[in-house]
């Protein structure tokens, strides 16, 4: 029993020494940030890509009644050429009827090939369509339902979730 108690104390003392050494030798994070600069997220991460897409929409006026949303199209296998054609038709229809639906801007990958790398996944399973919409007298849910129903494509999972909607004033 004495041996067990002695070994326990040795273990506690050893952990205390290790903790003290780690705390004393740990670098000063404030100094590291001042010397090296703030850490940045790589441009290849989805967060950075989403921020770039939203920056594309930023030239629309910073009006409190403008809402940025992203319509997401997804197919587990791969979006087929037929899927792309149907999506193109829906997006073009929305773009040509902007006033009717209260749309300020649509980033259309089919008319702007520069966006292709940002809005189509490498494996061609997902396509994003960023849209700026005037809120008018509608709720966020009403806008989401209207846009989702207008842009729905059979055979492709498509959605615009409330968590994807961003108010410009936030």
From TrEMBL:
It is a multi-pass membrane protein. It comes from the Bacteria. Signal peptide: none annotated. Residues 55-149 form the Membrane transport protein MMPL domain. The chain crosses the membrane at residues 6-26. It holds the Pfam family MMPL. It comes from Paenibacillus puldeungensis. It is found in: Membrane. This is MMPL family transporter. Keywords: Membrane, Transmembrane, Transmembrane helix. The keyword Membrane applies. Coiled coil: none annotated.
């Amino acid at each position: 029993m004495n041996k067990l108690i002695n070994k326990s104390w040795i273990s506690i003392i050893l952990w205390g020494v290790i903790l003290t050494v780690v705390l004393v030798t740990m670098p000063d994070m404030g100094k590291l940030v001042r010397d090296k600069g703030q850490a940045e997220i790589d441009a290849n991460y989805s967060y950075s890509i989403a921020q770039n897409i939203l920056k594309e929409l930023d030239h629309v006026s910073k009006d409190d009644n403008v809402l940025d949303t992203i319509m997401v199209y997804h197919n587990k296998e791969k979006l087929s050429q037929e899927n792309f054609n149907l999506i193109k038709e829906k997006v073009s229809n929305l773009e040509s009827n902007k006033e009717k639906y209260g749309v300020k801007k649509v980033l259309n990958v089919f008319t702007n090939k520069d966006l292709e790398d940002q809005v189509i996944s490498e494996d061609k399973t997902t396509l994003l369509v960023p849209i700026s919409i005037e809120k008018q007298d509608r709720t966020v849910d009403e806008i989401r339902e209207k846009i989702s129903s207008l842009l729905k494509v059979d055979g492709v999972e498509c959605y615009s979730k409330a968590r994807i909607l961003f108010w410009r004033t936030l």
